[in-house]
Amino acid sequence: MAAEIHSRPQSSRPVLLSKVEGHQDVVSAALLIPKEDGVITASEDRTIRVWLKRDSGQYWPSIYHTMSSPCSAMAYHHDSRRIFVGQDNGAIMEFHISEDFNKMNFVKTYPAHQNRVSAITFCLTSEWVISTGHDKCISWMCTRSGSMLGRHYFTSWASCLQYDYETRHAFVGDYSGQITLLKLEQNTCSVITTLKGHEGSITSLWWDPVQRLLFSGASDHSIIMWDIGGRKGRTLLLQGHHDKVQAICYIQLTRQLVSCSADGGIAVWNMDISREEAPQWLESDSCQKCEQPFFWNIKQMWDTKTLGLRQHHCRKCGQAVCGKCSTKRSSYPIMGFEFQVRVCDSCFESIKDEDRTSLATFHEGKHNISHMSMDIARGLMVTCGSDRIVKIWDMTPVVGCSLATGFSSR
Q1: Domain residues for 311?
Q2: What is the DSSP letter of 3?
Q3: What is the dihedral of CA 113, 114, 116, 119, to 10 degrees?
Q4: CA–CA separation, 128 vs 410, rounded Å?
Q5: Residue 163 CA, distance from chain mean position
Q6: Same domain flag for 391 and 318
Q7: Looking at the domain assignment, is residue 3 inside a domain?
Q8: Could you tell me the CATH number of the domain that includes residue 198?
Q9: Selection from 88, 84, 135 nearest residue 110 by Cα
Q10: Model pTM?
Q11: Which of 159, 324, 336, 383 is deepest in the core (most CB within 10 A)?
């Protein structure tokens, strides 16, 4: 069925539909059950719970299962109703949920990692469970036999994972700020490339197989869009969060990116617009505007008998400049800078008459967010975090799309 796209006023904001409370510790993952008024949660309190909405409008746990170790990651495959729970001890446990979501049967345990599991994905066609962990590796195991097929090690903790089911490419983000693209085979893998651009650890990844775009969020508060399919390898930088970006989701239909940060910030970015790539920062021993030496340039300081200056960078042109030549600040949304950043005085003059209207909307989730997931078909989002609260949101007023699947704003 064709999707309807409704334009909404900019002032629209996410509508909080429900708060789910009951966990005794950090809720590490929460997933909406497709086509059901239900949520599956996994927590550091060692429980996995399935919450169903009752006639009263409240969510009550229909399944409450205690694990042997704190739950750190989760994947759910709705068509087969299989659930995979990663734990702090490195094991992944598989369960099968009954049709009425009132019973959960244990299937098997996978000895996937030697340390905390950070991300899991399940591929039904190959019957693989793929995971990353704090033992610095990605592993893929056969769900039929429960045996290990392959492992690949990185130089630091593997923190997040995305997988292309058709091509068997895996994207792994790590604590060093690097993203590794791997091609997984039955018992081996090959490193295709590494992506470097973040100044902090990678906290979240999202892969869009249609446009072949990879989005990465990091502890440096920024998001980068990597054009994997495009030959130019274009990257776009998005800066609008004031804390580490914990979760991202790209809505391909409306070309919007939803991101959440640890301080509760929820951002919706308009990606259906021609954005500009932020420049690489240039290095110089002296200001590229007034030619005054920087403080490490001893020779020029001696020759000109001047005191060295601090080096800064203009976010628009990338030039190395001194403080006197970059006295202005400006937002520049077309380049992804949603708040005031340093620009050199000449760039400030060149953009002061340009349209600098924000290309994102910012909303307050009013709780710590460590994980988010969306049911794009219904325009629903669930957030959870260290405050032990799970929140269910109607995002249709913000993302401006309502797919023709029977969902209506409630």
Answers
A1: 298-355
A2: P
A3: -20
A4: 38
A5: 14
A6: no
A7: no
A8: 2.130.10.10
A9: 84
A10: 0.89
A11: 383
